[in-house]
Structure formats: structure tokens, C-alpha cells
Design brief:
- With 259 residues, this protein is of the alpha/beta class.
- It has two domains: 125 residues, 3-Layer(aba) Sandwich (D-Maltodextrin-Binding Protein, domain 2); 101 residues, Periplasmic binding protein-like II (D-Maltodextrin-Binding Protein, domain 2).
- 39% of the residues lie in helices and 21% in strands.
- The strands form three sheets. A five-stranded mixed sheet has the order 5-1-6-13-7. A five-stranded mixed sheet has the order 10-9-11-8-12, sandwiched between helices. A three-stranded antiparallel sheet has the order 2-3-4, covered by helices on one side.
- The longest helix is centred in the first third of the chain and has 19 residues.
- The protein is globular.
- It starts with a helix and ends in an 8-residue tail after the last helix.
């Protein structure tokens, strides 16, 4: 009889523990896209999106499990159910919406070329003829050049990188003449030494809503309306309670809050 009572109590304890266990949400992200995602000297994942992502997961009452990989692997991993969501400065575009669903807009930022001061490079395509521009693979920046300024007609060469870290190194060494990226990551690189080495934003920001989308958002699998709704509510929460703005100010001298 004691064994039966003990077994029953054990079973009740396990059921109670399971009912209070938080849901785990595996979020695919990057480890080399400062200041949004990067690893510090100890190997710990840091960055603006990691900070705000953890705040959102807390409000959703779920446990975040961050999974790092290359940018071009994120959507395939999401579709293969290796992760549940993507938070990695992924622009919400019509092309990507064919494969995944997106939350409400999370951040916005202009797109810029970065080049050596005095190089003559600007946002005008003619200034890039015969030169090489670095872009991250599978990014909207790569798509812009492939679709709007193909080498065959523009004379602009494009070099694709798995990580922008490598592109910045090639820019500094002179192996490429410009990098095309969001103004946020460009600002981070320039403020950490790029500006001192003689580089700056080149010309005006480049706009193309059809390519770049309205901003970045969190991607989830097609049809995962529950998780999408949870992230929509969490994003609205951090935007409205001031926590997004507080973290934003520590990383950038300008706002990336959607208007």
C-alpha cells in the first residue's frame, strides 16, 4: 500500500513539475553581426537583439534557447524544424514571406555604402563602375546588386561573404572598395576603428522597399500563428514600455524604432 501511495505521489509531482515547466523556444541567430549579435571574449552571446530578445521571452513566459549559425542557414533551419524562430536583423520582404511568416516590424534602419573618404564613391551607381563591393550572403544587400545592378550592365563587381567581419577586413586592406550594409552595423564598425582608418558612409542612404522591405522582423514557420502572435505582443510591449528605446540608446546615437 505504501508503495502505491508513494508511486501516486511521485506521479503527481512529475505532472505538477511538467505543468510549470516553461516552453522552450529555439531562436536562430548570428554570432558575428555586431552590435546586434556577437560573442564576447568569454564566448558568451551578447548584443542588442539578444538583450531585447531575452526581455521578450521573459514577457512571453518562455525559455529562450539561442542557436547560432550562418545567415543563409537560418530559413532552411526554420523550415526543417531545427529552430522555432529567427531573430537576426532579417528584413521582412515579399520574397522571404513566400517561405516563412513574419512578426510585426521590430527595427528599421537605412542602407548605406561604406568606402574610403575621398574615393569618389557615392550612392550613384556610376561611381562604383569597375570597383568591387562586399555584401553578406543571402542578404537583401546582395539581392539589391543582383537584381538592380547586375555586373553585366553596371560594371560593378560584387563579392559575397558569409560574415561581414571578413568584408570589413577586406575593405580596410583595399581588396574591395566598398561594403554595402545597414547603417546600424556600418556605424558600429566605423565607431570601433573604421572612421579612424579613413572610412565613412558614402553618399546618401539607398532606398528600395521592394528589395529591403519595411524593416526587420522575427521569422517563424509558415502557419505558426500562435508563436507569431506571442512575438507580435512581445514586440509591441518592448516598443511601448520604453525598454527597447533604453537599449537602443546604449548602442546607437539614432533611433531604429519603427515609426
Amino acid at each position: 500500500m505504501k508503495k502505491l501511495v508513494f508511486s501516486a505521489l511521485t506521479a503527481l509531482t512529475l505532472i505538477s513539475t511538467a505543468s510549470h515547466a516553461q516552453e522552450v523556444v529555439r531562436i536562430g541567430t548570428l554570432a558575428d553581426y555586431a552590435p546586434f549579435e556577437y560573442k564576447d571574449a568569454s564566448g558568451k552571446l551578447q548584443g542588442m537583439e539578444i538583450e531585447i530578445g531575452n526581455k521578450m521571452c521573459a514577457s512571453m513566459k518562455v525559455t529562450c534557447q539561442w542557436v547560432t549559425m550562418d545567415f543563409d542557414a537560418l530559413i532552411p533551419a526554420l523550415k526543417a524544424r531545427q529552430i522555432d524562430a529567427v531573430l537576426a536583423q532579417m528584413s521582412r520582404t515579399a520574397e522571404r514571406e513566400k517561405s516563412v511568416d513574419f512578426s510585426r516590424i521590430f527595427t528599421t534602419a537605412p542602407v548605406h555604402l561604406v568606402a574610403k573618404k575621398g574615393s569618389g564613391i557615392s550612392n550613384q551607381p556610376a561611381t562604383l563602375r569597375g570597383k568591387t563591393v562586399g555584401v553578406q550572403t543571402a542578404s537583401t544587400h546582395e539581392s539589391y546588386f543582383r537584381n538592380r545592378l547586375p555586373t553585366s550592365s553596371s560594371g560593378i563587381n560584387v563579392k559575397v561573404y558569409q560574415s561581414l567581419d571578413s568584408a570589413w577586413l577586406d575593405l580596410e586592406s583595399g581588396r574591395i572598395q566598398a561594403v554595402f550594409a545597414d547603417s546600424t552595423v556600418a556605424h558600429d564598425w566605423l565607431s570601433k576603428g573604421g572612421q579612424q582608418a579613413g572610412f565613412a558612409l558614402a553618399g546618401q542612404a539607398i532606398s528600395d522597399d521592394a528589395i529591403f522591405g519595411a524593416g526587420t522582423a522575427i521569422a517563424v514557420r509558415k502557419g505558426d500563428s500562435k508563436l507569431k502572435a506571442q512575438f507580435d505582443q512581445a514586440i509591441l510591449g518592448v516598443h511601448k514600455d520604453g525598454s527597447f528605446q533604453a537599449v537602443n540608446k546604449r548602442y546607437f546615437p539614432f533611433s531604429i524604432l519603427p515609426q
